[in-house]
Structure formats: structure tokens, C-alpha cells
Amino acid sequence: SARCLRAFAATGRAGGAWPKAPGVTQLMAQRRWNAGQESLNNVMPDKKHFRESATPHPLRPHQHLDPDEGPIVELMHNHVWSQEEIDLRLGNLYQHKPQSWSDSLARGIMYSLYRTFNFMTGFKPVNTPVKAVEWRLIVLESFAGVPGFMVAMFRHFRSLRTLERDHGWIHTLLEEAENERMHLLVCMKMFKAGPITRFLVVAAQLFMTPMLAMVYIARPKAVHRFVGYLEETACMTYANIIHQVETPGTPLHEAWAELPAPALAKAYWKLSDEALWVDTLKCMFADESNHRDVNHTFATMESDDPNPFVEKHKANAINAWRLENDGMSTNIGCPKTLGTKDEELPELKRRLAPDIVNA
């Protein structure tokens, strides 16, 4: 191999003589060696074209992110929202009507916790203090990432225990958990968590996680319904915050109206360079509305039913790949860019990922 030849050459030069066969002079051996080196270099050209390639290496730091933050590992492909999708969801705050006694119980518990949480954080429908919103978002997102991961863990163990497939639920649940965690990390780029906030984060995990686990063992559908109602309240919170930010004269408008979106948010949601913090809040609202719909759907299904959101995950991956490969962003906060249109998706799937069309 090339490595062995180079090591052999170094050994020969270190000994003061070029390697040669019997009857070959030193000059002849050196000429033969030089010819071999030239031939070897032709076989193994310089790797400059790899360094100058336009294709980004998966471990290379993202252009939006600060290199001091450390290496960024590729995340699951979240849905890249368009302005039209967000406007549609903001105009329709869906609320599920209970269909059974367990639905009514889950809704009653959730909305009782919601009102208690409003009182504890000082959250009001109008003129909410900025600090109250910061505190609320950190605590909310720190807990919202728990149910998806916990349920995915139970389903993972169930699949191993029964020696049967999961029918695609685990991926959706893990994507939800990671998405909520990214919400928290984005908030931490904007806010600071004090000792009381950190205590509430830990207390919420220690109290709610075992409670949800016990309920899931006994009645899985009830947990999904509870999370669906949780996401409904999250949608209400984000919609109210967005309204206050866009309403002149409110404390949130004065503090956040012109605040730029953090680099992490631009990278995660493929936002434009001109995107504002309120655009990030709109993406977070849209994510919560998607989690609401997913969990309300799971609450109506049996545990061995196939996941109806698998094709949506594939579409999200294709869309995110296209935007990143073309150096584009969404049209949120920047009207000159576009996302993938629904009518383009079948042809795009055939062109970019023909192996998953019939999967």
C-alpha cells in the first residue's frame, strides 16, 4: 500500500542509502525510486477537491451557529413551516371535545394545571410582563419534552419484549421529544434561568414523569389525550404571546418586536437571515399545534395500528434536504424565499429519493 511504501522509503533514507537490488548502482536505485514516487502520486492525487467541495460535511459546524458552542450533531428533520401554514393554524385554535369519561378527566386535570400555572408564573391575557413569559416558556418546554420520550421508551421496550415491530410510532414520539427540547434550547439562547426556575424544572420532571408512566401502563390512550390537551394550552399560550408581541404598546412589543431570531432557531427552522424572534415564536406555535394533532390522533388508535404520520416524516426530510442543499430558507420573515409546495412533493420524492416512494 501507499503507506507501506512511504514508510519503507523513510527507512531507506534514514539509513543513508536507497533500497536497491543486487547489481544496481546507488544512482540507478534513486532514479527508479523517483519514478515510482511520481507514479504513486498520479495514482493518489491531492485531496484538495475534497476540502473545496460545495457539499457540506455532516460533522462540519453549521454556518448559522457559533463555533464556540461545540460540534452540532444532525437532528431529526422537523417540519419546515411556511408563513401560510402558520397563519392558517393561528386562525384556527382547535380544541378537542371530550368523548368519554377519561377524556373529560384528562381535560379537567390539564386545564386545572393550566390555570394554576398561569397564577404561578403571573401570565395574563393582556400586558403580560416579559419576565413572566420568559419563566413560563422555560418551565413549559422543559416538561413538554418528557411525555414523548417516556412513551417512546415504553414502546421500544414493548417491541423488544414481544419481538414485534412498533409500526412507526417510536420515530414520531422521539421527534416530538427532540422538537420540544430544541424549543427549550432556543429559549435558553434568549433567556436566563434563575434558581427558582431551575427548581421548578426539576420538580416538574420528578413529579410528572412517574405519574404519567403509571397512567400509561394502565391506560395508554389517556396519556396521549392528556398530552393533546397539554399542547392545546401551549398553543393558546404561544398565540397570546405572538398577539401581544405584534400589538404596539404592550410590554412584549416593546421588548421583542424588533428582536432578531437566535442563530440556533435560524438553523433549526431554516429561517432567513432577516428573521425576528417573533418568527421563531410562530414556528414554535406551529410545532405545538402539530403535537396537539398527533397526540389526539394517537389517543383514538390501538397500540398496534400503523403510524399514519410516517409519510409526513419522509416529506419533512425531503423538504429540509432541499432547502439546505439549495441554500434556501422558508418564507417566514422573508418573502423572497419558498418552501416545497404540496403539488411538487410526488415528483420531488421520485427525483431525490426513489427508494422511499413505495416504502
UniProtKB/TrEMBL annotation:
InterPro entries: AOX (IPR002680), AOX_sf (IPR038659). One of its GO terms (cellular component) is mitochondrion. GO terms for molecular function: alternative oxidase activity; metal ion binding. One of its GO terms (biological process) is alternative respiration. The keyword Metal-binding applies. Keywords: Electron transport, Iron, Membrane, Metal-binding, Oxidoreductase, Respiratory chain, Transmembrane, Transmembrane helix, Transport. Its cofactor is Fe cation. It is found in: Membrane. The chain crosses the membrane at residues 199-218. Belongs to the alternative oxidase family. This is Alternative oxidase.
